[in-house]
Amino acid sequence: MSTTMAFPRTTDEAYAYINQVATPTVHDFKVMVMLEAAGQALYEGLAADATNENVRQLLSNNAIEELGHAERLIEVIRRVSGETFAAPARADNPYVPAPGSVPLSRGFLGGVVTGELQGEALYEAWAALQPDAEVARLLRLNGREERTHSERAQQALDLLPA
Ligand SMILES: [Fe+2]
Ligand SMILES: [Fe+2]
């Protein structure tokens, strides 16, 4: 593991990369911090598109929790390496979508329903490898909330006109 290893350049590359990580290094946790922080921005943009108040609330709740996921991962990095890592500012985070580039749609939400479940499975797999029980707990908390995000995304999808 090298802390100078380059980060994936795009959001798609970052997801493709992170989803195949079986044994996460500190570098991998940093990629995940950036994806989670970007997830907050993504959900905020989707929520801003919503005309239905319930849809807006479901997506806003997900946005808030993604920031919490980034914060838990920063604590994980501190515990496993002693390093203090900070999520990049939104303008400097390469995984934050450009404003308006990801409009709210049934098709996109369908992908979110699946992607969040993938996130849960990834966190569960990573948690199972951790010798530090607190690190495992933090990863599992993120994983459980990803399942909730999938459920909320499905609820939002069901509220959008076909
Ligand atoms: Fe998350
Ligand atoms: Fe999520």
Alpha carbon gap, first and last residue: 47 Å
User: Which architecture does the CATH hierarchy give at level 2?
Assistant: Up-down Bundle
The low-confidence runs, each spanning 5 or more residues with pLDDT under 50, are none
- Helical content stands at 55-70%
- Mean pLDDT figure: 96
Q: What is the CATH topology assignment?
A: Ferritin
Total of domains = 1
Shape: globular
Number of E-type strands: 0
CATH class: Mainly Alpha
Q: Could you tell me the strand content as a percent range?
A: under 5%
CATH level-4 homologous superfamily: Ferritin, core subunit, four-helix bundle
Ligands: fe (ii) ion
What's the total helix number? 5
Order of helices and strands: HHHHH
Largest sheet: none
Secondary structure category = mainly alpha
Question: Characteristics of this structure?
Answer:
globular, single chain, binds fe (ii) ion, mainly alpha, 162 residues, Ferritin
Give a written overview of the molecule.
With 162 residues, the chain is mainly α. The protein has one domain (11-16, 24-159): Up-down Bundle (Ferritin). The chain has 5 helices and no strands. The radius of gyration is 15 Å and the shape is globular. It starts with 10 loop residues before the first helix and ends with a helix. The mean pLDDT is 96. The structure holds fe (ii) ion (2 copies). Residues 36, 39, 66, 69, 119, 142, 146 line the site of one fe (ii) ion (FE2).
